[in-house]
Write a structure and sequence with these properties.
- It is a single chain.
- By secondary structure, this protein is an alpha+beta fold.
- About 30% of the residues lie in helices and about 25% in strands.
- The protein has a domain at about 175-280: Enolase-like, domain 1 (2-Layer Sandwich).
- It has a 5-stranded antiparallel β-sheet.
Length: about 280
């Protein structure tokens, strides 16, 4: 059996390979290789790590563009506004330093794990996923891109080329919290990201809350977001508005890491702490 490994330097070449043949895409490899275990690679592989123009964070006219092969270390080091503090905190929680140096933002999304660290903060940032093929490009909201456990909206011949974040208020603040069996190198029991922006009168003018590892796909909590609008921009006042019924969109499971009931209880408390983080401007 012949197994092909292709490492193009241009996006056009990569898309042409995908148009003609079925290849698994490799970027940082931090999910790709562990999934193999002790087995050798037995399928054609398209390595996009060297494709020019896919790595980096840049300011655009309407917001920010994060290239597909941008690493988590790149995110931590990028001069991003406080609204991205939650994403930076998540980047520092992705595996070890070595994993952060290699793992990519797009890889984290395409792996589509319910416990993908980057998803909740990107949801609070109203992120969209830019997808390319030889036939053209399309853009999907992140919530529509992720369709289930290990499932995404990618079609044959397509690949993610960027994550796009629209402009947010200058005074918006983001936060992220992750709960695991230990502080680092652990899969989440639950995780929460929050983003708040004050209104002109000192109350909450914008609120975004997302929870991960508590449903097949990380999700926003729209009822809670609505309940926070107009509340005083103060940790105690915001914490008082969080109610168990706001977590109804979640559907946690019992597994080796935690029970469903514990996940819900933990998520509710982490939401309160994340809101306090936003009020204090500390990110986490």
């Amino acid at each position: 059996m012949v197994v092909r490994y292709i490492a193009p330097s241009s996006l056009g070449e990569a898309l042409e390979v995908l148009r003609c043949d079925s290849h698994r895409i490799l970027a940082g490899g931090t999910d790709f290789y562990p999934a193999l275990g002790d087995r050798p690679v037995s399928f054609d592989t398209l390595d996009i790590a060297r494709v020019k123009g896919l790595r980096g964070v840049e300011r655009t006219d309407g917001g920010w563009r994060i290239g597909a092969t941008t690493t988590w270390t790149d995110i931590v080091r990028a001069p991003l506004p406080p609204a991205f503090d939650g994403l930076k905190a998540a980047a520092r929680d992705v595996g070890s330093i070595q994993i952060q140096n290699a793992g990519t933002v797009a890889g984290n999304l395409c792996n589509a794990s319910p416990a993908a660290d980057g998803v909740p903060p990107l949801l609070t940032l109203d992120a969209r996923v830019e997808i390319a093929s030889a036939a053209g490009r399309r853009v999907l909201p992140l919530q529509e891109f992720l369709t289930g456990v290990r499932k995404s909206a990618l079609r044959p011949g397509e690949m993610v080329v960027a994550v796009v974040v629209p402009d947010l208020p200058e005074d918006a603040r983001g936060a992220f919290r992750k709960l695991g069996a230990r502080s680092y190198l652990v899969i989440s029991i639950a995780m929460v990201s929050a983003l708040l922006a004050p209104g002109a009168d000192g109350t909450v003018g914008r609120a975004r809350i997302a929870v991960g590892a508590c449903s097949p796909v990380a999700c926003r909590l729209p009822a809670l977001e609505a309940a926070l609008i107009g509340a005083p921009f103060e940790a105690g006042a915001l914490a008082a508005r969080v109610r168990p019924e706001h977590l109804l969109p979640l559907s946690p499971i019992d597994d080796v890491r935690a029970t469903a009931a514990y996940r819900l209880e933990a998520a509710e408390e982490m939401i309160r702490r994340s809101l306090a983080d936003c009020c204090e401007g500390g990110g986490r």
